[in-house]
Write a structure and sequence with these properties.
By secondary structure, this protein is α+β, with helices and mostly antiparallel strands. It contains two helices and five strands, in the order E-H-H-E-E-E-E. Helices cover 20% and strands 41% of the residues. The model has no long low-confidence stretch (mean pLDDT 94).
Length: 133
């Protein structure tokens, strides 16, 4: 994670750069928020969408402060077969820069995010942003 207050600009990113791990608890507060939007969650298995929401939260928390005007351009997700997170688990998300490039006058940054529970992969994904500064 960023260790100072300097805004993350395109020039500061480097492929392979690691932003560390962000933990997201699948606690009652988070589940209540989820259920307020999507309805009740049956059983004790956390919905896949909640794991994806955690991925976005981890990305946002890991790279701070950010310039205004960034655009979320795309995301890719791959869930690990048979991976299950349950209510009450804490998921660890590792965030890193996968690639960066300038295209048509815009700064594109691809971030790799991996979600794990007790060391086992739940999800791997990419978030592609058009970086404003």
């Amino acid at each position: 994670m960023a260790d100072n207050d300097e805004i993350w600009t395109f020039a500061r990113f480097a492929p392979g750069q690691d932003f560390g791990t962000v933990t997201v608890p699948l606690d009652g507060t988070r589940l209540d928020g989820w259920q307020a939007i999507y309805g009740p969650v049956a059983g004790d298995i956390a919905p896949d969408g909640l794991i994806v929401a955690g991925m976005m939260e981890a990305y946002i928390r890991a790279i701070q402060p950010r310039p205004k005007g960034n655009v979320h351009a795309a995301q890719k997700l791959a869930f690990a077969p048979d991976a299950v997170a349950r209510k009450g688990d804490t998921v660890s998300y590792r965030v890193a820069v996968a690639a960066k490039e300038e295209r048509k006058g815009r700064n594109w940054v691809t971030f790799a995010v991996r979600a794990e529970l007790d060391g086992a992969e739940l999800l791997s994904g990419e978030i592609v942003s058009i970086w404003a500064a």
